[in-house]
Amino acid sequence: MTTARDWLDRIRALKLDRPVKIMNVCGGHERSITSAGLRGALPEAIRLIPGPGCPVCVCPEEDVYQAMQLALQDRVILVAFGDMLRVPVNVPKGEVRSLVEAQAAGADVRPIASPTEARRIALENPDRPVVFFAAGFETTTAPVAAMLAEGAPSNLYILLSGRLTWPAVAMLLESEAPGFDALVAPGHVSTVMGPEEWRFVVEAHGLPAAVAGFTPESLLAAFWSVLRQIGSGARFLDNCYPEVARPGGNKTAQRMLDTTLEVVDANWRGIGVIPKSGYALRPAYAAHDARLHFPDHSAPGRRRAGEMPPGCDCARVVLGKLMPSECRLYGRACTPRTPVGPCMVSDEGACRIWWSGGVREPAKAD
To answer: Sheet of 209-212: strands edge to edge?
Structure first.
C-alpha cells in the first residue's frame, strides 16, 4: 500500500517550473487537508484553494429567513440539519437572526441528522405540520428524494434548498479568471453522480482533474496525479477514490433524484443565480412542497436580502478568490462563537475549518 509519506516523496520529486494552484471543491476535503496539515507538508510552489463545496455557505439567505418565519409565525415544527441553525440572516439589530435564536424565542426548531428523523417527527406529531428545511448538495439531497419516493407522511413538508456541485465549478471555469490550474473533485458527490460528471473540466477546459477520497493518502494521490499531468502535458480525469466512487455512480440514488426532483436555475448566497444548479420538487410531489403550502415571508423589499452581511467576504472565499484568513472580518468580528457569515458556521465552511485547525489570526494585508 502506498502511504502518505510515499505520495509526499513523489510530489516533492516532481519538477515544477511555476507555482500551481489546485482547487479542492469539497468541504470534507478541506477538513481533511487542514486536520492532516497537508498544506504545510507540500512544497511551497503548490497552493491548495478551498472551493464551493459548502452547501450551508451558499444556501440563499432568503431561504434561511423563510424557515425562521415559518417557525416563528406559522408555528410549525421546523427541522433542519444541525449546522443550519446558526446561519445568520440580514435583519436589523435586535431582531431574530438565526434559527437557533428563533428557537430561543419560543419557536419549535429541532436539529436532525437525517431525513429519517424528519419522517419520525412527523409521524409522532400527526396533528402538526412539520417542515424539513433541507439544504445540501447531491449527497444529502438524494436521501431526501428517497424519503419522498418511498412515501412521506402527509403532514411533512419540504423547504428544499438543494444544489448541484458541478455548475458552480463550471461557472468559475467559464469566467475570465478561474483562479486555479487543476481540480480535485469531491468524492462523495462522485459516489452518487459518478466520477465521469467531472470530465467537462478536462474536455471543455483542458485542466487536469482527479476525484479524491478523504484520507491523506487519497488526497495526496490526487494532488500527485494533477501535478504529474501539468508536468507531462497530459490531461485526463483520474479516479483516486475507486473503492467508493465507481463508474456510473449510484443508479438508485440517481433514479430517486430524477423521480422526485427537477433541476432548476438556483440562487447561491452572495454569488447570484447559476443556471441549472438547483433542485425543486416535481409537480407530482407538490403536496409536500412547503413553498406551495405556506405564506412566502421572504418579502422582496427586505434590505440586503440574499447578500452576505456587510464586510463579509464569504462568497469570495467560497469561489476561491480569497483564502479564509484574508476575509476582512476573519478573527476580528467573525469567529465561531460570534459568526458573521455562514463560512464560519458550518463544519464544511472553510473559515470554520481553518479556525478549528489553529489559524486564529487574519492574514496580513499585502
So the answer is: 46-53, 20-26, 182-185, 209-212, 237-240
Q: How far apart are CA 221 and CA 362, in angstroms?
A: 31
Q: Are residues 66 and 174 in the same domain?
A: no
| Same domain as 138, residue 119 | yes
The verdict on residue 306 lying in a domain is no
Instruction: From 185, 216, 263, 195, select the one nearest 25 (Cα to Cα).
Output: 185
Residue 365 lies in a domain: no
φ/ψ (deg, to 5) at 277? -120, 5
And the C-alpha cell for 324?
Answer: 479564509
In a domain, 150, yes or no: yes
Give, for all 366 residues of the chain, the pLDDT tens digit.
899 999 999 999 999 989 999 999 999 999 999 999 999 999 999 999 999 999 999 999 999 999 999 999 999 999 999 999 999 998 888 999 999 999 999 999 999 999 999 999 999 999 999 999 999 999 999 999 999 999 999 999 999 999 999 999 999 999 888 899 999 999 999 999 999 999 999 999 999 999 999 999 999 999 999 999 999 999 999 999 999 999 999 999 999 999 999 999 999 999 999 999 999 999 999 999 999 999 998 766 665 556 888 899 999 999 999 999 999 999 999 999 999 999 999 999 999 999 999 999 998 765
Q: Are 315 and 322 in contact (CB under 8 A)?
A: no
pTM for this one?
Answer: 0.94
Cβ atoms of residues 219 and 226 within 8 Å: no
Asked if the structure places residue 348 within a domain, the reply is yes
Q: Are residues 157 and 259 in the same domain?
A: yes
On whether the CB atoms of residues 115 and 153 are closer than 8 A, the answer is no
- List the grid coordinates of 358: 489553529
What is the distance of C-alpha 78 from the center of its chain?
21
CB distance 130 to 122 below 8 Å:
yes
Domain that holds residue 332: 314-356
How many angstroms separate the CA atoms of 72 and 290, rounded? 15
Which is nearest to 212 in space by CA: 57, 22, 39?
22
User: Based on C-alpha coordinates, what's the Rg of the chain?
Assistant: 21
Q: How far apart are CA 326 and CA 320, in angstroms?
A: 11
